[in-house]
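<instruction>
Derive structure tokens from the sequence

<record> Sequence and structure tokens follow
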Amino acid sequence: MRRERIRYWILTDTHLGHDNMIEYCRRPEDFSERILKNLKFIEPEDILIHLGDICIRRDAYWNNLFLSNLQCRKWLIKGNHDRKSNTWYLEHGWDVVACRLDMQMYGYHIAFSHQPLSDDDSFDLNIHGHHHNTLHHPEDDVNDKHKLVFIEHEYKPIMLKHIIGK
């Protein structure tokens, strides 16, 4: 089987070093280490799209540790816990920083965001994180155009084509 030239990987809500995630989402005590170890699947010609909430506290430490494990291009869609300026993230190794990213891929207009977007007919698919393994919250305006990504099962990035079923 021939490998795609550029693979797009999605990761979200890593919350590196946030011990409360052990209780909140029933993560194992070594979840940060598992996430960092599982970045090995990403090759230098690939692109990682992180859908936000890299860490809580010790931003420089966790960003540097996370990014030191990656040779690929790194795009950050800021989450509610990513409170530094865009410039700060760019100066700390991210290649792209945004609150929302729209791309035409696999025959879809895909909107990447941290939280689910209201369906305003501006996208075919909204790939987002934020809700972890708790699925969608009833107060969100979500439908079959929304694809929730979470890492609480395997603690590793997911290929975009697998998320959208290609």
Notes: The chain has one domain: 8-161. The radius of gyration is 15 Å. The first strand starts at residue 8 and ends at 11.
